[in-house]
UniProtKB/TrEMBL annotation:
Ranges of residues in domain Thiamine phosphate synthase/TenI: 9-192
Pathway entry: Cofactor biosynthesis; thiamine diphosphate biosynthesis
Any one biological process term the GO annotation gives: thiamine biosynthetic process
Keyword Metal-binding among UniProt keywords: no
Stated name of the protein: Thiamine phosphate synthase
UniProt KW keywords: Thiamine biosynthesis
Organism: Pedobacter psychroterrae
Length: 210
């Protein structure tokens, strides 16, 4: 089942000055149509408390709500999809668990893994990190522009329709080069939620992409 995927994904994170709910509210007020709730620090009751409120915000503003991991919460809140960060995850098994209507995204750092998750039924993939990021520290090598272009070409040659999003340290000034490499979209967090004016930062990204 072909899913609609937004070109600009906003990801909430644990940060000191804004709750996940506040981040979602501010992003939606700025025009966000895709909110990825990424919280790995709370128990299920706390997660669901957040998710129920964010789901209402997304519903009010016409935004899609994606939850990072936590697929065991499927059916317990108004969640449209899940983003799976485990790069070894079996998307065939996950799809069987959550059903066809749920949007599934995955994280990848190699073209080989992009091919695998595309073949297993992922609806989109975050491919990165593009640059240094303190939001989600990791030791994976950065993906350069030539690799993004190569990934797009390999998937196309294989007849696999997997929207690729650049993720990890993406800044406004990177967009021309990234989209020039053929990517479908981007996922952003700190460039927006750490900005002096979150609304203005989101609008700057949105206007550049759309």
């Amino acid at each position: 089942m072909k899913k609609f995927i937004e070109k600009l994904h906003f990801i909430t994170h644990d940060i000191n000055h804004l709750t996940h709910i506040e981040q979602a509210q501010m992003a939606c007020e700025a025009g966000a149509k895709w909110i990825q709730y990424r919280c790995l620090s709370k128990n299920d009751d706390e997660l669901l408390k957040d998710i129920h409120v964010i789901a209402e915000i997304c519903d009010d503003w016409g935004a899609t709500l994606i939850v990072t991991d936590h697929i065991h919460l499927n059916g317990k809140a108004d969640i449209q999809g899940f983003h799976i960060e485990n790069m070894s995850a079996d998307f065939t098994d996950i799809r069987n668990l959550v059903g066809e209507d749920i949007t599934l995204g995955g994280s990848s750092n190699t073209i080989e893994n992009l091919l695998r998750i595309a073949q297993e039924g992922a609806d989109y993939a975050g491919f990165g990190p593009f640059a240094e990021t303190r939001t989600k520290p990791n030791s994976y090598p950065h993906i350069d522009l030539s690799q993004y272009h190569q990934a797009v070409m390999v998937l196309r040659d294989q007849g696999l329709d997997l929207p690729i999003l650049a993720v990890g340290g993406v800044k406004l000034e990177d967009l021309d080069d990234l989209f020039g490499a053929g990517i479908f979209g981007i996922a952003v967090s700190s460039a927006i939620n750490q900005a002096a004016d979150m609304n203005e930062a989101y609008r700057s990204f949105y206007d550049k992409i759309m």
